[in-house]
Fold these 2 entries.
Entry 1:
Amino acid sequence: YQDSHFDYVIQGYRECQASHWGDQNDKVIEIFNKKVYDFFPRTIEWLPVHILDLSETGGIKPHIDNVDYSGNIVAGICLMSSTVMIFRHKDDKNCNFSVLLEPGCLYIQRDKVRFNFTHEIPQDPAQHVFKGQIIPKGRRISLMFR
Ligand code: OGA
Ligand code: MN
């Protein structure tokens, strides 16, 4: 695991990009089509899938995904453990909400949520609160579609 990302947004992580999936390639592409790409207009040009592995002690600081490199839609498939993601309005930090991302879920950031809210996964386990409950923090892998 790397300590910190070049722009200090992510801590305790490993990452790579993949556009080919070995001998399972056709099967994986079919799953991605059915579970992700088919929900969106065919005109979207997607980047290679970004795989992010956050260690149990890792975290992602508040940020908005680069507006030039990724489009209007950022989608993620969550694997391995539940996590809490916090969204805060960029101009009013008091306007915020938390989302529980469970293993196997697909989540989508688009429009106002994508551009007007920062998103973060707190490094501090005490901040992993959803509906008054602490959600135990573990290693987590996400597949990001941009
Ligand atoms: C990112 C990010 C969220 C996630 O890589 O920019 O916000 O679910 N990832 O891993
Ligand atoms: Mn992001």
Entry 2:
Amino acid sequence: MALRPILILPDKRLRQKAQPIAAVDDAIRALMDDMLETMYAAPGIGLAATQIGEMKRLLVLDVAKRQDEEASAEPMVFANPDIVWSSEELSTYNEGCLSIPEIYEEVERPARIRVRYLDRDNRQQEIEADGILATCLQHEIDHLNGVLFIDHISRLKREMISKKFVKAAKRDAEDAKQDKDETEARPARLEG
Ligand code: NI
């Protein structure tokens, strides 16, 4: 297993659509394990493959601790997840995202959904989810379609958040360049 870097807004790969996988084989299981390790280390309760730059329709999650502090880990993996039914009833959660750190906003989504997917053994399964599991599944499936939770909030708020992250990325790039320039300049200074 290996920790993988999580892409941060405004990385364009977060806006790409993931492709279905042919089957859950050893390579996909290894990727699922990397995703789980990365998610737990973050820490987060869900992670989509697109968030680590893998354009495959895969997601992992574990909402057990969010429901009960004492609960032990309950990792879940989903390949080619597909929402086959959603309730008209809606529910609202204060959502965050590992790719948009430290931003939390209320998002309204269907309260209950049914999802068809391939499990770790490449068997087709269906799950009916409600509560935090339903929200988390919808949030992660959105990622596989290049959709982020800020797309569900007001345009004004979304633009403010986007600007903030574009600015931060620019600042990081400038800092990295300055560090590099200083490193390159150092031998000359040492000569003097
Ligand atoms: Ni997210």
